[in-house]
Design goal:
single chain, 127 residues, mainly alpha, Cyt_P450_sf
Length: 127
Amino acid sequence: MLDNWEEQIGERDEFEVEVHEEFHDLSAEILSKTALGSNFEEGKRIFDVQQQQEILTHQAMHNVYIPGFRFLPNKMNILRWRLEKETREIMRRIIEINRRTSENSMNFLSMLMSGNMNIQNKVIKKL
């Protein structure tokens, strides 16, 4: 982020930057690398999808609740379903990448998966 800012400054004495977006991207990168072991683009996409889901949830909270309405294929529900499916696909892809490449990786997902694998190996050995 700082390298990018220095590049933008160039020869100028000062410049203006939207720090909210910059720190949002920085947070997405840090969380995606430490928690998931994924790259910035995957982490950013997860954050974008979650932000869209958050907006839809906020909108739904301001509507009158009608039982069973969430199962009807209206515009908002279709968008919700698509976002949920995309989130699941991204997470499955990240988990599979971690499963193949993270023998000694130190991200949170790898640590959780290695603990699970240890338990599974012990159960298999007992059988």
